[in-house]
Design goal:
- The structure holds two protein chains of two kinds.
- By secondary structure, chain A is an alpha/beta fold.
- Chain A has helices spanning 24-29, 39-44, 46-50, 90-100, 119-124, 138-143; strands at residues 3-6, 9-11, 15-17, 34-38, 55-60, 78-83, 107-112, 129-132.
- Chain B is an alpha+beta fold.
- Chain B has four domains: 6-110, Sulfite Reductase Hemoprotein, domain 2 (Alpha-Beta Complex); 127-292, Sulfite Reductase Hemoprotein, domain 1, CATH 3.30.413.10; 306-397, Sulfite Reductase Hemoprotein, domain 2 (Alpha-Beta Complex), CATH 3.90.480; 413-548, Sulfite Reductase Hemoprotein, domain 1.
- In chain B, the strands form four sheets. In chain B, strands 16, 17, 18, 19, 20 and 21 form a six-stranded mixed β-sheet that branches. A five-stranded antiparallel β-sheet of chain B has the order 1-2-5-4-13. A five-stranded antiparallel β-sheet of chain B has the order 3-14-15-12-11.
- The interface between A and B is large, with 39 and 42 residues.
- The complex binds iron/sulfur cluster.
- The site of iron/sulfur cluster (SF4) has 13 residues of chain B, from loops.
- Iron/sulfur cluster binds next to loops of chain B.
Chain lengths: 166, 552
């Protein structure tokens, strides 16, 4: 089971992640718990999901714009953005859009190829939790949030740029 | 020049700690080659044909004497005693050891320098005209704006993993020596009718496999909005630039495929959310940045100097050098001196540790301890008293730095090519040398006059061959090194891309080919017409005919 980091610590991961191959049958069989489902599955089966008592989060791949969510994003208690490979930088911008333009207030999770050396950038772009491989070294990963104590830009995490503070 | 405060220093320190740790994890096998690749590239480290190469950032080409001395000592300790001036105003070393790079970076940090984002798919070093702040008829000094962009682009969390590299140039001078129009974003400083500063913004220019001139996305962007607007462009590119094919991944392809109007709409759609937000520049910040580039303590001097005038009469070689390498300054009694780093026998833009120390001393004595790296791979002293010219010239002669070639055919712009670069199709340095040897006569060169000749070892175009009046590019022909020749390129405000002359040539043929091209120009030119103007008038045909004419 992949591990979850939130607020600078490893926490229990109660969310089950449905992959893109998941079909409707699987939805029928769920009754309780927390599920993060792929965007398309949710869009195609909104009705079905609305009848469920389970807690639903949604995940977007890097080629899916958050603007296609067509709903109040704050209805989801978690939105996850996928990094198919760590150097695919699209989800950084999608995270910023979710926070700055769609005003998403809940948990924004980085999933996929999430590695230590991109964590501080993810944090700055508005991600609040990080799904990492089970075998990942906890100490090494947590250090990834502290590479820099300051940044020049206006970011999601710190909207006032350095030049207004120095 | 910009002086680091505690924030800038801290960030550099943290960067070195971060990179030392990354290198260690790589050496311990905890980071794969693939994982380490973008990390080392964003610290300027390539693995080249013979050894690693590290590219040190020279922000907008500006260096202090202290920094240049440090670069000289690094050349001695980590390289084989020399460094290479790149066409993007940076400095490259060819032989550092991977394990030593963190130490090298720590040495750079001692003089507020680094190798951050000098490579990789991120925002690279911002470049500008080497005469910024000193040029006559300057619209606005670009350096404070370059510094603002440097800070904004450094470790920008959203744009560290772009589809491809991203280059920005800023120009505030009348004559554009920054090749602004062939950058991913080109910014021309200008004033509106009220005299307020703004930018004309171009996007989608670039060289490489698909050379394109940038298109105007915004005719006048008020300065306050510079960063939010750049953010908006970058965001559209980051999300929509192609990632499936690295040859189609630059922003120029996106702009071309969408069309500039559709691209602009997307940028505006992003910008409406950020326009006016906290990233909007303040007068205080602009003034803070400007304060680092205030006018130096110029003396009140007459326009001309008698001693120098006498020397110009008596020493013809000095006169040649002054005619070519010295440009007018905005301040009376001052001038801009460019040292042409194109001595025959050394690769264009290669400087030895000794030469670097010499130039550092020269700048300290004669130019307020500052100098600039030019994108034509030369070194400029931007604030020199005219009365010091003769002394400077004589001193430069002793270090082989007084070549009077600036802007002439032998002032060749040339990438490292097949001798060093692992991407090369062909060598470029020996081609430059063969041409330089063929034309090595000042009177002949001077008669040919203003011309640019650029050589790249492959279509990546680091030698900017598309914007040379004459461009030479290495191609691979069934495993053999061949060269295509192109004519008519221009990197200035009227930027134009060169067109291919015809079938490629072997290395041995190139000097003859260049000679024939030059001969046509000399035969056909009217009055004082420059090569590029004659080419515009004559077109490609006469050149083609002569070069490919069958020998009788
Ligand atoms: S143009 Fe090609 S050969 Fe020359 S430096 Fe660039 S990548 Fe290397």
């Amino acid at each position: 089971m992949p591990k979850l980091i939130k607020d600078g610590a490893f926490i229990e991961n109660k969310w089950h992640l449905f992959d893109k191959e998941t079909d409707v049958e699987a939805i029928n069989s769920i009754n309780d718990g927390n599920y993060i489902v792929p965007l398309k599955l949710w869009l195609d089966n909104k009705e079905l999901f609305s009848k469920k008592t389970v807690d639903i989060g949604i995940w977007l791949d890097s080629d899916e714009s958050p603007l296609s969510l067509e709903a109040d994003v704050n209805d989801f208690s978690v939105i996850a953005l996928n990094f198919p490979i760590f150097r695919d930088g699209r989800s950084f911008s999608h995270a910023a859009i979710l926070r700055q333009q769609l005003n998403f207030k809940e948990d924004l999770r980085a999933i996929g190829d999430v590695q230590r050396d991109q964590l501080s950038y993810m944090l700055s772009c508005g991600f609040s939790s990080f799904l990492v491989p089970e075998e990942a070294n906890e100490e090494v990963l947590l250090a990834g949030f502290h590479d820099f104590s300051e940044n020049y830009q206006s970011t999601v995490a710190k909207p006032t740029p350095l030049f207004r503070r120095r | 020049m910009y002086i680091y405060d505690e924030y800038d220093h801290k960030m550099l320190e943290e960067r070195i700690i971060q990179y030392r740790d990354q290198t260690q994890r790589y050496l311990d096998g905890k980071l794969s080659d693939e994982q380490f690749l973008p990390l080392r590239l964003q610290n300027g480290l390539y693995i080249q044909r013979l050894a690693p190469m590290i590219r040190v950032a020279v922000p907008y080409g500006l260096l202090s004497s202290t920094q240049l001395r440090k670069l000289a000592s690094i050349a001695r300790d980590y390289d084989k005693g020399y460094a290479h001036l790149s066409t993007r105003q940076n400095i490259q070393y060819n032989w550092p050891k991977l394990e030593q790079v963190p130490d090298l970076l720590a040495e750079l940090a001692e003089v507020s320098m680094h190798a951050i984002q000098t490579s990789g798919n991120c925002i690279r070093n911002t470049t500008t005209d080497q005469f910024a702040g000193s040029a006559k008829n300057e619209i606005e000094d670009s350096r404070p704006w370059c510094e603002i962009i440097r800070q904004w682009s450094t470790f920008h969390p959203e744009f560290a993993y772009l589809p491809r590299k991203f280059k920005i140039a800023v120009c505030g001078t009348e004559i554009d020596q920054a090749a602004t129009q062939v950058h991913d974003i080109g910014l021309y400083l200008l004033k509106n009718d009220q005299g307020e500063i703004g930018f004309k913004v171009l996007v989608g220019g670039g060289l490489g496999r698909t050379p394109l001139i940038g298109q105007v996305i915004c005719e006048y962007l008020p300065w306050q909005h510079l960063l939010t607007y750049l953010d908006a462009i970058m965001r559209v590119y980051n999300m929509e630039g192609r990632r499936d094919n690295k040859y189609k991944a630059r922003i120029k392809i996106l702009v071309k495929e969408l069309g500039i109007d559709a691209f602009r709409e997307k940028v505006e759609a992003q910008w409406q959310f950020s326009k006016g937000n906290q990233a909007t520049l303040t007068e205080a910040e602009v003034n803070r940045c400007k304060s680092f580039f205030s006018t130096p303590d110029f003396e009140q001097l007459p326009d001309e100097d008698e001693v120098i005038n006498a020397a110009l009469q008596s020493d013809l070689l000095f006169k040649n050098w002054v005619d070519r390498n010295v440009a007018p300054h905005k301040q009376a009694g001052y001038c801009i001196v460019t040292l042409c780093i194109k001595d025959i026998g050394a690769a264009p833009g290669d400087v030895t540790d000794r030469q670097m120390e010499f130039v550092a001393d020269l700048a300290e004595r004669y130019s307020f301890s500052e100098l600039r790296v030019t994108h034509e791979q030369n070194l400029t002293l931007a604030d020199v008293r005219i009365k010091d010219l003769y002394e400077i010239y004589k001193a430069c002669k002793t270090e082989s730095l007084a070549t009077p070639y600036l802007g002439l055919l032998n002032d060749i712009v040339c990438c490292p090519g097949g001798d060093f670069c692992s991407l090369a199709n062909a060598k470029s340095i020996p081609i430059a040398e063969a041409i330089q040897r063929r034309f090595n006569d000042f009177d002949r060169l001077n008669n040919i006059g203003d011309i640019t000749l650029n050589i790249s070892g492959c279509m990546n175009a680091c030698g900017h061959h598309h914007v040379g009046n004459i461009g030479i590019i290495g191609v691979d022909k069934k495993g053999a090194e061949f060269y295509q020749v192109a004519l008519g390129g221009d990197a200035g405000r009227e930027a134009k891309l060169a067109k291919i002359l015809g079938p490629s040539f072997s290395q041995e043929e190139i000097p003859d080919v260049i000679e024939k091209i030059i001969q046509i120009y000399l035969d056909e030119r009217q009055h004082n017409e420059k090569f590029i103007d004659a080419y515009e008038r004559l077109g490609m045909e006469p050149f083609k005919e002569k070069v490919y004419a069958k020998a009788d």
